[in-house]
Amino acid sequence: MNHPLADVTRRLGGIAYGGDYNPEQWPREVWREDVRLMREAGVNLVTVGVFSWSRIQPRPSTYDWSLHDEVLDLLHAHGIAVDLATPTAAPPPWFTRRHPDARPVTASGTRLVHGSRQVFCPSSPAYAEAADALVTELATRYGDHPALALWHVHNEWGNHNALCYCDTSAEAFRAWLQERYKTPDALNDAWGTDFWSQRYGDWAEIDPPRDTTAFRNPGQELDYRRFSSDALLTRHITETALLRRISPDVPITTNVMGTLEKKVDGYAFAAQSDLVAVDHYLPAADPDGHIDLALNADLARGMAGGRPWVLMEHSTSAVNWQPVNVAKKPGETRRNSLTHLARGADGLMFFQWRQSRAGAEKWHSAMLPHGGTDGRIWKEVSALGAELASLKEVTGTRVHGDVAVLFDWHNWWALELQARPSSAFSYLDAVRDWYEALWTMNITCDLVPPGADLTPYRAVVAPNLYLLSDDDADNLTQYVHRGGRLAVGCFSGLVDDCDRVRPGGHPGALRDVLGLVVDEFLPLRTGEHARLADGTAVEQWTERVEPRGCTTVSRYADTADGGPARGGPAVTRHGFGDGTAWYAAGRLPVPALRELLRTVCRQAGITPVVEAPPGLEAVRRVGDRHSYLFLVNHTEETVTVSVAGAGLAGTEVTDGRAVVPPGGVAVVREDPSSPLY
User: Fold this and answer.
1) What is the pTM of this model?
2) Is 152 in contact with 253 (CB distance < 8 Å)?
3) What is the DSSP string of 135-191?
4) Is the Cα torsion angle 408, 347, 238, 108 positive or negative in sign?
5) pLDDT at position 2, please?
6) 638 and 621 in contact (C-beta within 8 Å)?
7) Is 339 left (phi over 0), alpha (psi -120 to 50) or beta?
8) In contact, 435 and 445? CB cutoff 8 Å
9) Which residues lie below 8 Å from residue 277, measured CB to CB, with a gap of 6+?
10) Virtual CA dihedral for 482, 487, 488, 489, nearest 10 degrees?
């Protein structure tokens, strides 16, 4: 049975290429120029209607389909398929005027006003009724339209309104808690409410974790994040069910946001979609933003269960919402796009097709910029479209990760609540450091949750597991016992899924598998560091470790430079069952993590995709007939790599060596009979 994305790409004739199309922002005479230029650029799929609610339904009892009718017919006549969005991310002004209580409320009690997008409470019955009616009408009218290739539910769930603290949300939260805990006594136990006299005797006494006099109850706040993500997920499931009932043969997706969005559990939304689609934008202030790009692509593939996925949004150049919106350099759009392709994307889409002339995103770059077709961006966009058409044989192939990197939104929420040992400890920083160490070695990995099936992976890396459920702890323990290799970062295994400290000493659920006890956490002040015996400087975090069966691999220096953990273990190794577990008792810098993971990978029999100089990224996609090696050069020098196969998309292969120019990308269809393969 084909995966739904395979059906889409087969219909498109290859890789999906295009972007958000907002014809409502332009006069009708522009639309024909749009479709002509789309064909010229190689566009085969556009997302329509994301923010068109006020156009479709200008008044509560009035629907106007004229624009959509004309635009969808026009796109279909020119061979361009449509990813049709339910425009529920932006209720119209009449809705918020008629239902002022549906507007979201902040933790301090401020009710937000209309004037942006996602101005609605996720738990509002009025919003649910209006959205469901709109989706039903939309699906009924266009469910069998010949242009329709994909349904696009909502847009970036929870990006702006995930946490609403209104009275309606409070009632919904109480219902969610009753379903979860059944009795107030069970909730009191989970939240530890005997602390600070918070014990509840009635569900009606419980409010959302609004602003209060001191620290909020962490169990309450963690559950409120779960409830808030679930409230939006309920809306996603409801819209999806309506579309599936009315238009059962069209696949459904939504654009989740990876590490750009902390507030909702991306895995949960991916699991309720026919295919996974993500948005990604480079952090302009990060000179190594391409590593963040690779991380998010590997997370998308993890959410997709290893199957191909769609990049629903990225930018041709600068965005508009960062403090300084840096333009991409010549060739960077191609390099970014082909990196996503290399890591499993079968669709490469942009926000947006034509750059807006008004509104909050008019300075966000687009495929067709303000200056039209004379500038660099248009030339690069058109060239990329032609190149992707030549790479259509790559669609459907897969990337196989040797290493699982554990990533968990629930752990992210819990780790960064109030009253932790150090507010400087960032979950994403920890994940990115461990990921970067693997990336620099060209070790391919999947980002998956702790409860995932880990048997396909030769090694598992857990940058941080502060919160770890009993089931997930058992999953990791059994993985190592059966012969797996596990590397764990500091401040892990400490609390259960209610944020309660595990008894018996730290690191709680991981004591036995790691063979140690953490006697004390020793965070460092800004500017402080502790040196290892080899001179490596550790910042932000150290721990005092007592071995209970583990072997010390490296130590903090036995001098004043060793910091508060001086002379103690910094990295340990422990044989457990048929496997081995390593622990880093500090916030190790990337070079030290790389050395640790090089040892882990060597013992697990994991080798780099190719042997390549620093700055040359290598990823392989594998199919039934061929494999495809992608080489991405992030340096200022030409790099050559030994390969076995034929160059694609203009790649030069001479005497078994692929030439990758500075800032360029090479693609090689590999010869499986070669010993280099």
Assistant:
1) 0.97
2) yes
3) HHHHHHHHTT-TTEEEEE-SSSTTTTTS---SHHHHHHHHHHHHHHHSSHHHHHHHH
4) positive
5) 77
6) no
7) alpha
8) yes
9) 152, 253, 254, 255, 256, 309, 310, 311, 312, 347
10) 180
Burial of residue 182, with CB atoms counted within 10 A of its CB: 0-12 exposed, 13-18 middle, 19 or more buried: exposed
Residues of the chain with pLDDT below 70 are: 1, 673-677
Task: Check if 595 is active-site.
Answer: no
| CA angle (114 as vertex; 110, 120 as ends), nearest 5 | 75
State the catalytic residue, choosing from 239, 261, 313, 543: 313
Instruction: Supply the pLDDT for residue 414.
Output: 98
From CA 346, how far away is CA 394, in angstroms rounded? 8
Q: Which of 156, 261, 380, 387 is catalytic?
A: 156
What confidence score (pLDDT) does residue 285 get?
A: 86
Please report the domains of the chain, with CATH numbers, ordered by start residue. 4-92+127-159+233-394 (3.20.20.80), 403-604 (3.40.50.880), 616-670 (2.60.40.1180)
Asked whether 188 and 181 are in contact (CB, 8 A), the reply is no
Handedness of CA 501, 502, 504, 505 (dihedral sign): negative
The pLDDT tens digits of the residues spanning 283-309 come to 988 999 999 999 999 999 999 999 999
Q: Which two tokens stand for residue 200?
A: 């509840």
The closest alpha carbon to 134, from 90, 164, 167, 101, belongs to 90
Query: Is residue 156 annotated as part of the catalytic site, yes or no?
Result: yes
Q: How remote is the C-alpha of 588 from its chain's centroid?
A: 24
Quote the pLDDT of residue 674: 61
The predicted pLDDT at position 442 comes to 98
User: Strands 579-584 and 485-488: what pairing?
Assistant: parallel
SS3 content of the chain, % helix, strand, coil (to 5): 35, 20, 45
Q: Residue 639 CB: number of other CB atoms within 10 A? A: 22
pLDDT at 212: 96
Tokens linked to 75:
């796109």
- Side chain identity at residue 349, one-letter code: M
pLDDT, tens digit, for every residue of 17-46?
Answer: 999 999 999 999 999 999 999 999 999 999
- Residue 300 is encoded by which pair of tokens? 């998308």
- Can you give the pLDDT at residue 555? 98
